[in-house]
Write a structure and sequence with these properties.
Helix content of chain A: under 10%
Helix content of chain B: under 10%
Structural class of chain B: mainly beta
Number of strands of chain A: 11
Oligomer: heterodimer
Number of strands of chain B: 10
Largest sheet of chain A: 7 strands, mixed
Radius of gyration of chain A: 14 Å
Strand content of chain B: over 45%
Number of helices of chain A: 1
Largest sheet of chain B: 6 strands, mixed
Distance between the termini of chain A: 40 Å
Strand content of chain A: over 45%
Radius of gyration of chain B: 13 Å
Order of helices and strands of chain A: EEEEEEEEEHEE
Number of helices of chain B: 0
Structural class of chain A: mainly beta
Chain lengths: 122, 108
């Protein structure tokens, strides 16, 4: 059974780069598309972007200039880097998987991690 | 860019039916996906690809769509259905996904 576990620094200062990892167990990274989603405190879900092992993917246009999603198959990990963070980037960050059947947009994000909390404060 | 609009909150009596709506221009072209989110838990996919339920999702959850509006219907709401529900679809540019603002469902 596919399981995902996010990890990260928890606390950052403004202007730093956020680096998060999503560790995958119970499945092959190449069998899925991988998405990052976040939820600011008291707010709704925000789609950050997705990537597959063949490096196809897309990013939220509002974040595109600051984000990089990459896959390390040797470590069974998906990473998210978000540069120049501000307090507005605080929240809970989730990774999620979608079966890699050729249509990222059809099947939805079926397996989610529990999320990791990020706080940006000076 | 387009957006998806959901009612902030709805309530339903135990055992009754509730319809959650999601409106947006992109829904004329693309189907909505629906997620359930409870405090402190990971989101759960409840509907994908127009009206498909993943394994383990009760059949009281269904979806429909008309024009620019997608709906999630909970038939015979249970206490455990109390949660926030988010719709999700492609943007009209077709290059990325957007979420609605979410609807808080209270089961009375």
């Amino acid at each position: 059974q596919l399981q995902l576990q996010e990890s990260g620094p928890g606390l950052l200062k403004p202007s730093e780069t956020l680096s998060l990892a999503c560790s995958v167990s119970g499945g092959s990274i190449s069998d899925y598309y991988w998405t990052w989603i976040r939820q600011a405190p008291g707010k709704g879900l925000e789609w950050i972007g997705y990537m597959s092992s063949d490096e196809s993917g897309s990013y939220n246009p509002s974040l595109r200039s600051r984000i990089t999603i990459s896959i390390d198959s040797s470590k069974n990990q998906i990473s998210l880097k978000l540069a120049s963070v501000t307090a507005a980037d605080s929240g809970k960050y989730f990774c999620a998987s979608t079966p890699n059947t050729g249509s990222y947009y059809f099947y939805g994000m079926e397996v989610w991690g529990q999320g990791t909390a990020v706080s940006v404060s000076s | 860019s387009s957006q998806l609009t959901q009612d902030p909150a709805v309530s339903v009596a135990l055992g009754q039916t509730v319809r959650l709506t999601c409106q947006g221009d992109s829904l004329r072209m693309y189907s909505a996906t629906w997620y359930q989110l409870k405090p402190g838990q990971a989101p759960v996919l409840v509907i994908y690809g127009q009206n498909n339920r993943p394994s383990g999702i009760p059949d009281r959850f269904s979806a429909s769509s008309s024009g620019n509006t997608a709906s999630l219907i909970i038939s015979g709401a249970q206490a455990e259905d109390e949660a926030d529900y988010y719709c999700n679809s492609r943007d009209t540019s077709a290059q990325y996904l957007i979420f609605g603002g979410g609807t808080k469902v209270t089961v009375l």
